[in-house]
Every structure is written in C-alpha cells, then in structure tokens.
Request: fold
Amino acid sequence: MTDQVNPKDYPGKDVYAVIGNPIAHSKSPLIHEVFAKQTNQAIHYGRIFSDLNDFKKTTLEFFECGGKGLNVTIPFKLEAYKLAQHRAPRAQSAQAANMLWVENGQWWCDNSDGEGLTRDLRRLFKERGASLSGIHVLLLGAGGAAQGVIEPLIGAGVASISIANRTHEKATALVQQFSGVATKAQMNLKAVSLAELNNGSYDLIINATATGLSDASPISKDVLQAIIHSDTLAYDMVYGKETSFMQDAKALGITAVDGLGMLVEQAALAFETWRKLDLQKTPLDINGAIAAVRASY
Ligand code: ATR
Reply:
C-alpha cells in the first residue's frame, strides 16, 4: 500500500502523507503544499489508502521506508492512538490521534483537531469583533469528533457547553468524562436532551454529528430558530459542502460556516510540529490555504 507514497521515491525531501479510507478526496496534500511553498520547505506530502485491516502494516511500511509523519483520518484515529507509545495530552483527552510520527525509534501521536477548531473559531469570532471568552456553546453530537473538541473549547474560556445527542446516554457520559476539567475551569458543562431543546440562547452551535455527511440535520429548523439570536454562529465540522444544518441556519438569517478552516488549522498545527519552524518569523498564511482549497473545488 505504501507504493502510493514511497518515501524512497523522493530523495532529498522529507516525506509525509495522510492515511485514511476513503482518502482520494483529501485536501491535506494541497494544504501542506501551500504551507511548504509559503515557508520554503523541501517536502513531499501524499495520500495513502489503507485497507481497513491493514492500518498497522501500512504505517509500519511507510515509516520503515523513511516516511517522516502521517496525518490520520477516518476511520483510523483510534487505532493510531492505540499504536503510539507516546501520546500527547491533546490526544489523551480526545482518546484519538490525527498525527502519527516516529522520533528516536518510538511512535508518537498527537491530536490537533480540537485546537484546529478553536483556532478557527477564534479567527471567526475576531472577524466579528468578538471572542470565545464567556460564550454559550451547544455541541450537537457525542461521538469521536465531539469528544475531541470539548477540552479545547473549555481551554478557550467559553462560559458553558451543552451537549445534545440522539443517544442521550453518550452525552451524559461525555459530561462525566470532562466534569473535572470543567469544574477546574469554573465553566458549566451539561447534557441536554434533544427533546428538551426548545429554548435557550446559544452564541455558537457546533454540528459534530455525522449528519453533515448525509442530507440530514440533527435538529429541525424550528428548534434551531428557538435557540438562536441574531449573532449566533452555526458551525458544521464537515467541510466541502453546505449541509442541511448550514442551510437551515442561513435561511434563519444567521452566519453558517463549514469545517474547512478547522481542516486547515489542524494541518497548520501538524506542519508546525513536524517542521519545527519559528512561526514568529514565518507565520503560515491560513487564509491563503483556505482560498487555495476553495479554488480547487
Ligand atoms: P465521529 O468520530 O465522526 O464523531 P461517531 O463516533 O460514529 O463518528 O459519532 C457520530 C455522531 O453522529 C454521534 O453523535 C451520532 O449519534 P448517536 O450517538 O446517537 O449514534 C451522530 N449521528 C449520526 N447520524 C445521526 C443522525 N441521523 N441524527 C442525529 N445524530 C446522528
């Protein structure tokens, strides 16, 4: 499988890749290419498709052939986390990894998804003359994607996070898991049943469910209307399409964005980690990378 990206084919370059199943449409190679150009780095970044049962074998081959680092995407984030001997705190909190690399003969993993989201949100709120500090967040979903963003959101200083999920028990389990961190940060973390979601006023609503991939939305337009105000931001973690959730939000007159900014920010964090750059001197142009991806559709 590593034939898709064989590091030996790129002498003089450090080789990276994104691995997943499916993987053909990943925008990670384009984003890393943009960052490499911006910072004059001699790297090659490709895509690796792995059979579902071959993740360990495929990654091993890549590193044995001299590969420097992998970004890991669906459905291997949990497996990547389990394979690593060293797990960054961010990966431990998410119980999943989107970065895997070898250093001094040992496997390391990290997770830049959650911080990628908060960086993107900070940028979006700043553009509106606001900040994440003290805001009220509704998080829709309680799967892996939701789990990975709770601690970074708490760290960003939000006032409250309400988690609502189709299977309510999973939302209460997440609240339990992060209650210590929330209490320490003196913020309010709670589970809200979807059926009771008919009032409230959220500043930010994040769709972290898998509904963005189909044509469904986790909440109806009527419910959405009941829980927003004119400045509420609707954020779907899926990228590359306008989801039903985003369409409903726009029809109700509020701003809705997809997760492309999060994708670019998590890539920037991986690039920074691996290339060990002084980004005070050479900051990455995030908006340039977002524009390059949008232009590629
Ligand atoms: P991921 O790692 O992408 O989060 P996941 O762990 O399988 O994937 O979680 C998928 C999330 O989307 C869950 O919160 C799931 O709700 P359940 O816990 O009830 O399964 C949610 N989800 C998927 N399809 C949905 C739908 N049609 N309506 C509402 N929520 C949905």
In short: The domain at 2-111+261-296 is CATH 3.40.50.10860 (Rossmann fold). The CA atoms of residues 136 and 202 lie 5 Å apart. The longest strand covers residues 14-20. The mean pLDDT is 95.
